[in-house]
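User: I'm writing a tutorial on reading structure tokens. Could you give me a worked example: one chain, its sequence, then its tokens, then a sentence or two explaining what the tokens reveal?
Assistant: Sure. Here is the example chain.
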Amino acid sequence: MAHTQTASLTAVRPGRHRLRAVDPDESVDFSRVADFLPPGATLLPAPPHTLPTLPGRPPMVGYLVLLPADQQPPLPVAAPAPVADPVEEQGPVAIDDVRRIAVVDGRALDLTYLEFELLAHLVANPHRVHTRDQLVTTVWGYGHVGDGRTVDVHVARLRRKLGAEHRHTIQTVRRVGYKYTP
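And here are its predicted structure tokens:
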């Protein structure tokens, strides 16, 4: 038999409080909550239809805090913060996951979908040795039917596209796989 519970503030130490569950028939002293509200604020129970419900969980209890208009916190009107540059750069190769481009020495590489995924994975994990099977599973996905030779072909294409000056950044680890070394 499930019964609903609500939350109550319980004093742990003076000035320190924590939430605890209370039974529906237990009276709760909400006057203690007023200590946490700004002056002039009103606490009202939220209508049950406005609260989220979680399957298999008791209904939630919520409250609305009403503030006088003159005490309303100012809304931010400043310009939005600049978005961090999504380019991940490791050595000479820069990967932009948002625009899905790879750049080497200021030159964008013309890569296929899988070449980009493979290079992005290697650049994101520099100096880590990846077996061919790990790369097939990670880049191509679990449902891929093929062998490590597929990885060898794609790595050869990537090296060609990186150019003579940067082809050495993807190194072969004999009888194991590949690693990216910036």
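What the tokens reveal: The chain has three helices and eleven strands. Residues 148-162 form the longest helix (15 residues).
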